[in-house]
Amino acid sequence: MKKITKEVYLKWYEDMLFWRKFEDKLAAVYIQQKVRGFLHLYNGQEAVLAGSLHAIDLSKDKMITAYRNHVQPIGMGVDPKRVMAELYGKGTGTSQGLGGSMHIFSKEKGFYGGHGIVGGQIPLGAGMAFADKYFKRDAVTLCYMGDGAVRQGSLHETFNLAMLWQLPVVFICENNGYAMGTSVARTAHTTDIWKLGLGYEMPCGPVDGMNPVKVAEAVDEAVERARSGGGPTFLEMKTYRYRGHSMSDAQHYRTKEEVEEYKKIDPITQVLDVIKEKKYATEEEIEAIDKKVKDLVKECEKFAEESPYPDKNVMYDVVYAQEDYPFLPHKL
Ligand SMILES: Cc1ncc(C[n+]2csc(CCOP(=O)(O)OP(=O)(O)O)c2C)c(N)n1
Ligand SMILES: [Mg+2]
Prior knowledge:
By secondary structure, the chain is of the alpha/beta class. It has a single domain, classed as 3-Layer(aba) Sandwich (Rossmann fold). Helices cover about 40% and strands about 10% of the residues. The protein is built from eleven helices and seven strands. Helix 1 crosses helix 2 and helix 1 packs antiparallel against helix 9 (about 265-275). The N and C termini lie far apart (about 40 Å). About 45% of the residues are buried. The chain binds thiamine diphosphate and magnesium ion. Pfam families: E1_dh.
């Protein structure tokens, strides 16, 4: 695994803080009705992304996830200004403002969405890995899902084929304890989700998803296995989301105390503690990072606010009538 140096800790701190503040800003502008529709925020789960990014090769590896998907593309290299513009429904957004919150996508940066159907991305992730294996491309796919997705038939059918064909994919369940308002314990006999891999003889295990070091180590091992032809892995990241399922969630299913307990092991605080303890940065240097993050969030907001809505003619480019289906080449 690439060494976890001082620079990595500082990058983790800056990245995770930026993702957190970016989404805090989204929550604020959502209340002002500048961002509409559904909005599912990632606050609390940032270590899963930070650790994963350390373990992959951004120049060739790929990522696909569910609808909690604003910060992953940023981690993969998509311009955050364009992500915020997409959420505002503006023409400068990643999908010209036509996708919105649940549908961020960037083929160029290896980020394949953004999927609103629970469990829908699981077979797609395996399909991406199948294509890479078939065309002999050296790439690994990270396929994320929530704890609510693992009881879908799509996961089980996919696990079977992914093992049969030894696909270069890492399945990562982000177990944040709840599927909307339903706790894992209310929907399954076993709350150890990682054990689902055992039935398929897929390498699997639990991971502390609040600590980017633990995440990086586990994902690195899985990515190396996939890259060297060893097939898929299933990891269960034990994590937590601080905000509601979406912005309209009154959160009657959990206590404030429970949320506060998890904030004690907050991933950003954990990383900052190491930075301070090992003297990786002075107070002034940390303040400079905080300011940089704040300024970048402001820049994203300004860009989204000032961008124009998509031209009406765009509608004619994405809705089409096909007369001799299925033989016409698909034009987007
Ligand atoms: C097939 C399907 N069934 C139900 C829904 C409604 N739904 C949206 S999110 C969600 C909960 C999923 O929870 P989880 O997989 O744990 O992800 P999290 O929101 O915690 O990230 C449900 C049931 C849906 N979008 N798709
Ligand atoms: Mg969940």
